[in-house]
Structures are given as C-alpha cells and as structure tokens.
Amino acid sequence: xxxxxxxxxxxxxxxxxxxxxxxxxxxxxxxxxxxxxxxxxxxxxxxxxxxxxxxxxxxxxxxxxxxxxxxxxxxxxxxxx
Length: 81
What we know:
Layout: E1 3-8, H1 14-26, E2 30-33, E3 36-39, H2 42-54, E4 58-63
Antiparallel strand pairs: 1-3, 1-4, 2-3
C-alpha cells in the first residue's frame, strides 16, 4: 500500500525543511511535487509528520488509491492555446 505525505513547512524554517528532505531521500521516497512525496512505509511517514507538526508546520498523510486510469479520449480536454 502506498501513502502520500503532503506538508507545508514555514519558509523561515530551513532546518526542518532540510531534515525532512534528507529523511525522505534516505527512505527512498518518491517526490511527486516539492511538498508531496510517496512512500510505502506508513510508520515512517507518521514519524515524519510528527516532526513536521512539532515545528509548528502542517502535514497530512493520505492513502494513495487510483480510482481510474482509464479515461476515454473523448472525455479528455484538448489544451487551449
């Protein structure tokens, strides 16, 4: 089972940001966006969320569930120029 962690660390808190990024890389987490990472280890993410929250920042852990990856071409929007 894959999980996502989404966090918002205060811009002024570089120390926590550095700890979080190093920890995620050490765990081989996959960065989906700058503050959105994917990992299979729920307990590791819980520890990380506690670290983030203890610094006064925000963190959410979500279970990743793909609802559908089969979208018919007729339903997809074409890019506008």
